[in-house]
Amino acid sequence: MGTSYNSSSDYKGEFNLSKIPAGDYTLAIKAFGFTPTLQPISLVDQSIKTDLKIPSQSIQLNETIIVSDNIIEKTSVSQMEINQTQIESGKGISNDPMKTINALPGVASDNNMYGPAAIYVRGGESFENLFLLDNIRMPFPFYFFGQSVINPDMLEKAEVLTGGWGSNYGNAMSSVFNFSTRNGNMEKFKANADLSVFYMSALVETPIIKNKLSIIIGARKSNFDILFSTVLPKPPKMGDITSKLAWNINSKNKLTFTSLNVQDRLNFLDSNVLFTGFYANDRINAQNLQLHSVISNKAYSKLSIMHSGLDLKAEGPDVFIYIKFNNYGLREDLSFYPSQHVKIKAGFEVNRDDESTHAKEIYNSTDINITDTTALTVERKVNKPNHWAAIYGAYERTLLERLKFSGGLRMELNELNNRYDISPRITLSYNLNSKSFISANWGLFTQSAGAYQAIQNPRIISNQCYHYILSYKYNFKPGYFMRMETYYKDYKNLVIFDSTFAFSNNGKGNSKGFEFTLMKESGRLNGWLTYGLSQAERRRNLQTEVYPFFFDQRHTVNALVSYRLKEKKRKWFVPTRYALQFRYNMGAPYTPVVSADSTGGKLKLITGNINSLRNPDYNNLNVKIQWHRTLGKRQKHGMMYYMEIWNLYSSKNVIGRLYEIGKNGVISTKNNYTVSFIFNIGLKFSINSTFN
Question: Which domains does the chain have, with CATH numbers?
Fold first, then answer.
């Protein structure tokens, strides 16, 4: 009684259910574009085979149609989708979904609990990534301490594309991080509150008009202002609020409104403990009004009106940056399904960027933290609006029974340099059998020059990167697969500057690698294991030739595993769920300092070959243990208390170094390390819901 068995069909529409006891069952069949069908079936102690026919159905606007809008994107190679359970397992002490994503193949950062807000994907720079929140472009979705502004409790899923994505995404060369928020409950009130040593959060969702209009609001706050109150005169203050309204206008139209507001404030002007002399105040806000419409039983539209804003003021010794940036955008995505074997997608977007920037920054080609009076100090100003637009089309078709073609073309126009960028992309996929397929992708991905770069040199063109990807995927069963992938990225016409701060397209580089992924998406045991082998090199700012990329991590191993015990066999004191997150990677390259020269009264550090040495290898193990309880007479409320440990065995991982020169000219080196062993405990309550 109450037992269910699940299976998914292959490319022929065939499926198999095995190890089912004899008896009477109801077979439920669901497929996009077809009427859900219930078929009574009786099983005896022998195999049976049956043919089932289900009628087509007009598309209705519900949660399924939102998922169906991603069908063409699913043909992209190098694509991973992370669900809410996986996000919860890997978000870490900082309560950040990007910590889960950092455990995916090809994605790298400094791996510190709190650290620089920079993500590097397959040998690309941190600014080559596109971050989307419900279609909103987020130019800088991070706090100063490196935590993302994305609330994990508000997410339905996170889609990560590290190469070969469709033509509907543009102006990015390395990756797309597409975060989708969930709608509030349309039937009943739900809420939860989470309190731990390092952060606190709360979430409320409720119908305003039952089955018609709902709202969900999530808020997070860092506890740094409490933890550092006795150490710092003005401790950091960090917090964000995300909300979403969802209105089912009728069976064919849905309207949603997403809003994000972030406050980030640091003040170390009077501190002699940490970041002495540094001050920063950052405000982020973003909104999106989105209309989902079923045009016919074969066509679906998503219209978005978007805004994102950044108000940043940061000052430090001899440096400062002031930014006021607002992006206003209109976007339309149209999906059309003329037949069972053909899918077409097309769309456009129009944007206006209002930017006012004044910055004084120090650049050094060696990528090391040193006090060097010969480093290039640059002051730049931007106070000019920019308009840019893009159109795209994508076509997917089953050519033969097993061969599928997906092609796309994107064209972008940027007002600042008045140039068109045309980006073709092609993917071929072949089903070897019902469980495995191979895919090959080629595409051109462009990224426009920054406003200050295009103003200084109107003749520069967009950065370019060609992707070549070969992928093999084997599905053991639904939600459990293995993937092997090899890639090559060829960077051309990269915008860089020389010692006179003259911008040109003289930058170039390449990145190549192999990735292995084993993933189980659901069940009591879920998670993934990955291995990556990569090599990256490029010519960057102030460099005259190609050097190893400063974030070239040759070997990486990631594991994120979550295990939930059976309730019937579990004692009250035994944890409900265990989660482990492990990462190993070869140390990143760095440029050594070999001597110093103070001729003429100016200090000059003499360096060796650029990025010729490597940091020690990095390894880190994080653990999370949860205890779940149900509360109330009807057991419909939940309580979870948990324990987290960051860097379980206190591994000393180098993330940088400082150089000091003594009176006798001897250079001493001081290494900077990631955070060592950190312990966190927390308690979370939920109303009208329990924890899985």
Answer: 178-687 (2.40.170.20)
